[in-house]
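Field reference: "sequence" (input) and "structure" (output). Example, 1-deoxy-D-xylulose 5-phosphate reductoisomerase:
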Amino acid sequence: MKKISVLGSTGSIGTQTLDVVSKYRDQFQIEGLAAGSNVDLLIQQCKEFKPKKISVATKELAERIRPFLPEGTQLFFGREGLIEVAAGTDADIVVTAVVGSMGLPSTLAAIEAGKTIGLANKETLVTAGHLVTALAQAKGVDLIPIDSEHSAIFQCLNGERRQDVEFITITASGGSFRDLNREQLKNVTVEDALKHPNWSMGAKITIDSATMVNKGLEVIEAHWLFGLPYEQIQVLLHPESIIHSFVQYRDSSIIAQLGNPDMRVPIQYALTYPERWPSPSPTLSLAEAGKLQFREMDFERFPCLRLAYECGKMGGTATTVFNAANEMAVARFLRKEISFLQIEAIIEKVLNEHKNTPEPALELIEESDKLARELAARL
Ligand SMILES: NC(=O)C1=CN([C@@H]2O[C@H](COP(=O)(O)OP(=O)(O)OC[C@H]3O[C@@H](n4cnc5c(N)ncnc54)[C@H](OP(=O)(O)O)[C@@H]3O)[C@@H](O)[C@H]2O)C=CC1
Ligand SMILES: CC(=O)[C@@H](O)[C@H](O)COP(=O)(O)O
Ligand SMILES: [Mn+2]
């Protein structure tokens, strides 16, 4: 029996994780669930999966949910509550599926407690990759990627020698506005931006896909997960999202991972690794998929990807600031306070104001994150 805690259980990744768990009731047991404010769904999940510990975003929400919980469920809230669910249960594996750099303290706490990490929350690695990977190494903890591209690369690297790798290539769908030019981007709406062509995901990552920030975050995530320099990490536009990513080796072989766009596959692989179990997801038919297309990435069209590479190569607090400015700008776009193109303008302005510090400690990361958000909220 594998014991699992899910941080962000009411979100897109969280609910799909519980979907996988529900197919294997005899093999998986839910120890802890943490959500934000969707208390109705959390109550349902508690009744179904009977976690020992749960957490919600605030004390008020905790009071609201208390009368509806099965007897014996321990209830927590806020930052400490998230940490309790991450580190204070008997879970073997913690799925990190909250959104944004707010996931950092709970991820560090789970690693400190020796839990295997099923990592969906990419912002954690972008904001503090050097701290997370160093702690994981010191504690002998595995970081198993859930992000589809990184799960693909993880699988393509399996059993291979790192010195034989020439490049890894992360595929990008192009997001909701793939076929629009920059002029056409001036008037796009939030509703349009939320229509991803291939994946059904949370709002923040769907906007990130449209700005290509998601691919930028994924390049930085790959740098930390696989220990490769940015020069060996490429991005290729692939509108169908069938090839989830691939690795090119020095003997000129390319190994790719393919499948329908269904997150339950990488989620399940992270939970069962190194085993592969039958999946609820239908197997891809290449005959039905027909034509697969690929295009070079246009850095003029997608300037956020260029910015992400620049920040990644700089290291230090630059990636923390890139991520925090983006989180604030996306929240403002979703509230319809700014236009789509102002997301990238805000990120660029906040970065221009920033003085980079290499190898920052946690306190400086938190401070840089806070200052970047404050500036991005004012611009
Ligand atoms: N969705 C996808 O297919 C993919 C997602 N990812 C990554 O996975 C992560 C999650 O994404 P996604 O599932 O789409 O996001 P969602 O927005 O769908 O879900 C976010 C989750 O975080 C919870 N949450 C929000 N605020 C708090 C808080 N203060 N305390 C505790 N929990 C909180 C939400 O709870 P509530 O709803 O109750 O408020 C929800 O459960 C992101 O980092 C994303 O980049 C990576 C690859 C694919
Ligand atoms: C499902 C997943 O992993 C997302 O990160 C996905 O990659 C988004 O697609 P694009 O960023 O390629 O549009
Ligand atoms: Mn991805």
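The chain has two domains: 2-145, 150-261+297-314.
Residues 122-139 form the longest helix (18 residues).
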